[in-house]
């Protein structure tokens, strides 16, 4: 066998071994995941691309973008644009605060594929009927708010969830992400261990992403909501369901969840920004 044939044979074997190793790694990683039912969670509702699980006071939405499911970052009516008053030179609007039930009634009448609504962004919780968001938000291709907090709050602990039609990504937030992100939608939150009363049993809203087929694209979004949980517990639940990246959203009295008209986590607190989840049944 000449030198050229030896090199080709070696290249073939190396490529073959790398493929086998990669497949084994994906299979091994998946085999370590516990099935939701074995964790004690039960399915309480589902639709095309979405499954809602429950265990005690914990709820977990599994949202598969590859099956046509969709999430939108929705917000209340803007009552003041806050032009160029944002932390990064953009706008810092005031948004009308509403209950999730109010928003559900209005949005479901327009789109019956609406599956769930939960709370989202941190905000200034004052007594005003309108308020500003703490961190940046982009919706339908428009940077709606820079937020007011900037790098004064949690400067090294902010993360960003970017969402496209068929995939999502959680990564470290950098101010230049605002202009350079090509995602249609994004929301900025905090690392799982940022100090928001780490061990307090309180309302929690956490979000994670999963690459279910090992193609290095995160096509599944997982949203954890609970009336009473610690930060480590919220993180552990998401990771048990397969999330490899996790981010914390607003919690406490802001944590709310309504699905298919059922108020699973209710609160008297009005909030300015929410996450709407739509099934793949209707577009």
Automatic annotation (TrEMBL):
It comes from the Bacteria. InterPro entries: NAGPA (IPR018711). Residues 117-278 form the Phosphodiester glycosidase domain. This is Phosphodiester glycosidase domain-containing protein. It comes from Trichodesmium erythraeum (strain IMS101).
């Amino acid at each position: 066998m000449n030198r050229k044939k030896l090199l080709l044979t070696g290249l073939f074997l190396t490529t073959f071994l790398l493929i086998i190793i990669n497949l084994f790694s994906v299979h091994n990683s998946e085999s370590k995941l516990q099935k939701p039912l074995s964790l004690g969670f039960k399915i309480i509702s589902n639709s095309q691309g979405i499954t809602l699980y429950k265990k005690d006071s914990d709820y977990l939405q599994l949202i598969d973008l590859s099956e046509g499911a969709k999430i939108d970052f929705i917000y209340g009516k803007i009552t003041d644009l806050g032009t160029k008053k944002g932390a990064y030179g953009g706008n810092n609007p005031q948004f009308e605060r509403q209950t999730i039930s109010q928003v559900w009634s209005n949005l479901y009448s327009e789109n019956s594929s609406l599956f769930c609504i939960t709370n989202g962004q941190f905000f200034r919780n004052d007594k005003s009927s309108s308020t500003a968001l703490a961190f940046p938000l982009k919706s339908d291709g428009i940077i709606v708010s820079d937020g007011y907090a900037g790098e004064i709050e949690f400067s090294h602990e902010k993360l960003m969830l970017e969402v496209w039609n068929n995939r999502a990504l959680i990564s470290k937030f950098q101010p230049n992400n605002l202009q350079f992100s090509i995602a249609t939608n994004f929301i900025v939150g905090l690392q799982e261990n940022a100090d928001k009363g780490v061990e307090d049993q309180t309302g929690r809203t956490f979000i994670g992403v999963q690459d279910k087929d090992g193609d290095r694209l995160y096509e599944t979004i997982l949203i954890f909501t609970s009336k009473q949980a610690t930060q480590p517990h919220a993180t552990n639940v998401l990771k048990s369901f397969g999330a490899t990246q996790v981010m914390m959203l607003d919690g406490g009295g802001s944590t709310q969840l309504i699905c298919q008209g059922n108020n699973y986590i209710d609160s008297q607190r009005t909030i300015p920004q929410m996450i709407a989840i739509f099934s793949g049944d209707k577009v």
